Amino acid sequence: MGKFFENLNGVLIAGLVLAILIVVFPNSGFQNSVGSTDLWLGVFQWLHVFFGITWIGLLYYFNFVQIPTMPTVPAELKPGVTKYIAPKALFYFRWGAVFTVVTGLILAYLYGEENALLLNDPSNRLIGIGMWLALIMAFNVWFIIWPNQKKALGLVEADDATKAKSARTAMIFSRLNTLLSIPMLLAMTNMH
Q1: Is 191's pLDDT higher than 60?
Q2: Where are the domains of the chain?
Q3: pTM over 0.70
């Protein structure tokens, strides 16, 4: 049993298989919760939540754990975080943002709320606000946080002053995303 849980890919595949079994199992309640004709709606809603948890979970990891802890990490141990942990976490962070936004846009279309971004319909204004916040956050991830993190972590060539400035910029925009995530999650969880 322990060997199985040492294999992340195996665990993820098993979790996916269990989710599929719940979907197809008679009387599981899944068909009642999404409607028998809305299988794709249920699948994209599930994917949206999965990717959103990945994205926001890593955002909170960076802001609640890594950023506050790094100043207390001994200098000889910091490369373990900056060379191995942070780049891998930032990979899932970036792609979690993309897939959260894409599945969210698909959901808006499937729900008939593709015009929610216009914010002109009171019945879907809240989800439109959430969508705008998520788009701003995803922009920050890809065009501000990630380029600055590449410099700060030494993934691209930069002098020490540039690394320090880039680390601060990435942190500030990461904190901005943390701030925006709170109302964005309110909008996301009150969709329907």
Answers
A1: no
A2: 1-34, 38-189
A3: yes
